[in-house]
């Protein structure tokens, strides 16, 4: 019995050591992948952009940070137009796009937002196929709700600021966790990353495998939301 106990302790210790070594290797690999690489981050003044800046800086990247200033955004647009050709010329580069689960499925009363995210998904799926032969990589990150000020900064139908933190947003993903997932996507060259819970993931599969059932669920949801708004 004592021998069996010693063997068990040694086995557990060996497994623990292997797991620790694996974690160290992963950390080193992440740092090596982005070490001294130039990373352009838009929306870096707050929320997910700010956390991405912190995570990539810690991994050794050289950052170009962009905010909401209109003049600066115009400069960013002009700079980004030059980035892709330079990537092709070097045969190296990785484009990461933050989309949304609503780029995979549409929910009631989010038509404009969902349409923009579907367009984002389609555009970068096409771009990924077109630039792969040049050695470039494209990752589309599709999270659910993220705990940022997005809903507070949203604009209502009359153009005024919404100014309220929605419950779904308040209970959303921690932007730090999403930023770490972005770094992981770059490290392992993941093409399509879905960061959602069980129910949204099942909804995506339902939309694909049994669309009629999905449409009924969404129609029922639309009726419920309409009643709530009318109260």
Automatic annotation (TrEMBL):
One Gene Ontology cellular component: membrane
Any matching Pfam family: adh_short
SUPFAM superfamilies with a match to the protein in the record: NAD(P)-binding Rossmann-fold domains (SSF51735)
Cytoplasm listed as a keyword: no
Transmembrane intervals: 193-219
Keywords on record: Membrane, Oxidoreductase, Transmembrane, Transmembrane helix
Gene3D superfamilies cross-referenced by the UniProt entry: NAD(P)-binding Rossmann-like Domain
GO function terms (MF aspect): oxidoreductase activity
Family: Belongs to the short-chain dehydrogenases/reductases (SDR) family.
Function: Putative oxidoreductase.
UniProt-recorded name of the protein: Dehydrogenase/reductase SDR family member 7B
UniProt source species: Bagarius yarrelli (Goonch)
């Amino acid at each position: 019995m004592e021998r069996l106990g010693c063997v068990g302790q040694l086995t557990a210790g060996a497994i623990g050591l292997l797991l620790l070594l694996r974690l160290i290797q992963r950390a080193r690999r992440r740092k090596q992948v982005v070490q001294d690489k130039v990373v352009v981050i838009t929306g870096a003044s707050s929320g997910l952009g700010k956390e991405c800046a912190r995570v990539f800086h810690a991994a050794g990247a050289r950052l170009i940070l962009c905010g909401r200033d209109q003049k600066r955004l115009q400069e960013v647009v002009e700079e980004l137009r030059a980035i892709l050709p330079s990537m092709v010329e070097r045969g190296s580069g990785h484009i990461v796009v933050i989309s949304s689960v609503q780029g995979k499925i549409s929910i009631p009363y989010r038509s404009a937002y969902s349409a923009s995210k579907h367009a984002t998904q389609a555009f970068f799926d096409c771009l990924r196929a077109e630039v792969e032969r040049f050695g470039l990589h494209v990752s589309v990150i599709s999270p659910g709700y993220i705990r940022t000020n997005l809903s507070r900064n949203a604009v209502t139908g009359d153009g005024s600021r919404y100014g309220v933190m929605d419950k779904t947003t308040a209970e959303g993903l921690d932007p730090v966790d999403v930023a770490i997932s972005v770094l992981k996507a770059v490290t392992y060259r993941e093409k399509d990353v879905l960061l959602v819970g069980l129910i949204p993931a099942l909804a995506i599969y339902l939309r694909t495998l049994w669309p009629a059932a999905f449409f009924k669920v969404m129609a029922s949801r639309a009726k419920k939301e309409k009643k709530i708004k009318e109260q």
